[in-house]
Amino acid sequence: TQKALATNDAAMFVYGVSAVLIGPTLPGMIADLDLTLGAAGLIGSLQSLGGLIGALAALFIADRVSRPIATIVLFTLSGASLVGIGLSAGYGLLLFAFAVSGLWTRLFDVMVNAHTGTLVRADSGRGMSTLHMFFSVGAFVGPIAARALMRGGLSWSHVFVIAGGCSIATVVVSLPWLRSYVRTGSGPRASRPVPAAGAAAGAAAGAATAENAAQTPHGDGARLAGAPPPHRDGARTAIALLSGALFFYAIHQIGVTAWLPYYLEMSRGIDPDVASLGLSLYWIGIIGGRFGASRCARRLGARRLLTAGALVSAAATFASITTASPVAALAFAAVAGVASGATIPLAYSVAFAYRPERTGAVTAVMSIVMLAGRFVGPWAMGVAADATTIAGAMVIPAAVLIVVAALTAWPIRSA
């Protein structure tokens, strides 16, 4: 079991590296393909659209296949799709390649989370937290590695070919190890899978439970505390509001990931390596935010922490794009990551407390809504940049967090 968990963690690290490559490579794509910023934004949107299709497909197949085998196959296909991105000749093929990449990587995300959940049912919070920590560490390393390759004279297309080739080579080299891996938790119905990004909910489950025990019926999880359950309409309203919060948070996260390096480099004149470091610090901030969420939620309550974190992150994001100091811009990017880093796991945990008997359906709905935000965000920011400036478009990731704060602070009707 420990070897299987280590394999999943390592695969999640590689996934994290590839998931953020669009940020440091986007300026090169724009220059080489002579793209408008709206057309450039569509690249990230098509990748998210592929992910949305993958999440929907996972609802039908995740319980019907061997998770270890599916994880290996999908990891390999994800690597092949990265090679396809690097070899794409022309804008149309590039969009298609990114959509295919989004499909395979999202399906891989579902299966590796589901398999990990099968292996750590006795301590799911710790296991899922560790899994997503490796993703975040990969997301920290990705921009730094991409800039190192491009500084050495390689193009953005080479970066994707190398990333995909390393993924495929890793599978080939690990084949002797993977023979035992496929026998771990291989039963397709060993446990309910955790669709898409919703798997991160396990990382903060302990925090939400602690909060539930201390709150009144107006709190996030009165049902778990033995108090009168929330009014059914109140539960629906709460889940709808939390889903909306994840929609707007997804716009923030994908907007920063896709556009922050380009903005810092092209609009602020910051060195490309330093601009990519800003994205890495944002993601290392997310790691810190997720690890600190449990303790803070016990003191503030999960919903209050969601609201406060969104407001602090909105201010930090705005400061990052307006401050005159490059050092301050990087510091504020890290603060933005810390403050909002636990938004996804906390939102899922709060929603689960309202409908503990329907966690699968709640996860699926919230994940799909969040992926819709990831589809809208990059393209909307690109169009806004064409209509105004990239500086004007970068206000969007800050502004949407104010909406997140409003949605998570909205009062919920109880029984």
Written description of the protein model:
The chain has 415 residues and is mostly helical. It has one domain (2-409): MFS general substrate transporter like domains (Growth Hormone, Chain: A, Up-down Bundle). It has 17 helices and no strands. It has helices spanning 2-19, 22-33, 37-61, 67-87, 91-119, 124-151, 156-173, 175-181, 205-212, 232-267, 272-300, 302-322, 326-340, 343-354, 359-387, 390-393, 395-409. The radius of gyration is 20 Å and the shape is globular. The termini are far apart.
Note the main attributes of this structure:
globular; Growth Hormone, Chain: A
Q: Describe the biggest sheet?
A: none
Looking at the overall shape, the CATH architecture is: Up-down Bundle
**Count of the separate structural domains:** 1
Instruction: Find the structural class using helix and strand composition.
Output: mainly alpha
Query: How many DSSP-defined strands?
Result: 0
Kindly identify the CATH topology. Answer: Growth Hormone, Chain: A
CATH superfamily: MFS general substrate transporter like domains
Average pLDDT = 82
CATH class: Mainly Alpha
What is the terminal separation in angstroms?
A: 44 Å
With helices defined by DSSP (H or I, 4 residues minimum), what is the helix count?
17
The rounded Rg comes to 20 Å
Q: Roughly what fraction of the amino acids lie in strands?
A: under 5%
Assign a percent range to the helix content: over 70%
Shape: globular
User: What low-confidence regions span 5 or more consecutive residues with pLDDT below 50?
Assistant: 188-229
Write down the secondary-structure element order. HHHHHHHHHHHHHHHHH
